[in-house]
Amino acid sequence: MSADELDDVFAAGRRASAPEALMVRVEADARAMQPVRAARSGAGQGGGPSWLGLLLAAIGGWRGASGLSAAMIAGFWIGFADPGGALAALQGEPVDLLPGSGEFLAGLEEG
Amino acid sequence: MGRRDHAQAPDADARLLAAYAAGDPMAPRLLNERFTPLAYRLAMRLLGNGADAEDVAQEAMIRLFRMAPGWRSGTAQVASWFYRVVVNLCTDRLRRRPAAPIEMAQDVPDGGPGAEARLTDAARVAALDRGLAALPERQRLAVVLRHIEGLSNPEIAVIMDVGTEAVESLVARGKAALKAALMPERAALGYEEG
């Protein structure tokens, strides 16, 4: 068997596709297991998930966030995203440590 | 799917995983389309059985979804991690029970345009699976990762946890053995005598 003929056989192996029923089951699993999406995370804008979306995914989504006080959530936010640069605050420069937090905390109250 | 798809994937895979973890509604379908065919194809070549390959693919994807929120970019490539999961699941399955009979890789509809080509393809895949089944496990894995998944030897070395030279040796020996196994079937696979 020549090298080209063997390559043909390998190419046939690459073309073999997954059954549609499997694809359907796996997508159902994916949706069932996916962390809850933040209502106003801005995910997908600029091509990637927002920090808010990632933070909420880490603490179990809106349902997880609703069990924590606003102060605890603020602490997570500062530690996770370092918005504005905490170091700048130490150097005496005014820093907004919670940019966008008004909307974020308002969303917690709704949840 | 092959070397080019795998090589362009690393950053894109990590971003897709992050989007899934962030709840992006498009991410489940995109992850499914990116990884499930890869898992099924690899499991099918290693196990030679469709039902087993589907079980392995579905389990591997569940582990991917479960891992997604904790994935940290820069530590490893998602695809390398995923290949290892599929390989380990296949190895576990092979160890637990004897290999099931090799079956035709896909159903081929009767008649219609392209039916003969699809029959030929199906026959070649079945012969490929019989030939692969006759190889020692590590040669089989190395040949599949190199010549069907299109991975480089260093990438395969990471997945198999061996050196690159070991991969080169496994691929060379496996390919030679596979060629010898397929020789008697050349005519049946649509290749002319000569």
Beta-strand share of residues of chain A: under 5%
Number of strands of chain A: 0
Task: Flag low-confidence runs of chain B.
Answer: 4-8, 105-109
Q: Tell me about the largest β-sheet of chain B.
A: none
Question: DSSP strand (E) fraction of chain B?
Answer: under 5%
Order of helices and strands of chain B: HHHHHHHHH
> In which range does the helix fraction of chain B lie?
55-70%
Distance between the termini of chain A: 66 Å
How many helices of chain A? Answer: 7
* Class per helix and strand makeup of chain B: mainly alpha
Shape of chain A: rod-shaped
Estimated radius of gyration of chain A: 23 Å
Number of helices of chain B: 9
Give the assembly state of these chains: heterodimer
The overall pLDDT average of chain A reads 65
Number of strands of chain B: 0
**Mean of pLDDT of chain B:** 86
Largest sheet of chain A: none
Question: Per the principal axes of the C-alpha atoms, what is the gross shape of chain B?
Answer: globular
Give a structural overview:
The complex is a heterodimer of chains A (111) and B (194). Chain A is mostly helical. Helices cover 60% and strands 0% of the residues of chain A. Chain A is built from seven helices and no strands. Chain A is rod-shaped, with a radius of gyration of 23 Å. With 194 residues, chain B is mainly α. Chain B has helices at 3-8, 10-21, 27-47, 50-67, 78-96, 115-133, 137-147, 153-160, 164-182. In chain B, helix 2 (10-21) crosses helix 3 (27-47), helix 3 (27-47) crosses helix 4 and helix 8 crosses helix 9. The longest helix of chain B is centred in the N-terminal third of the chain and has 21 residues, at 27-47. The radius of gyration of chain B is 18 Å and the shape is globular. The two termini of chain B are 32 Å apart. The relative contact order of chain B is 0.12.
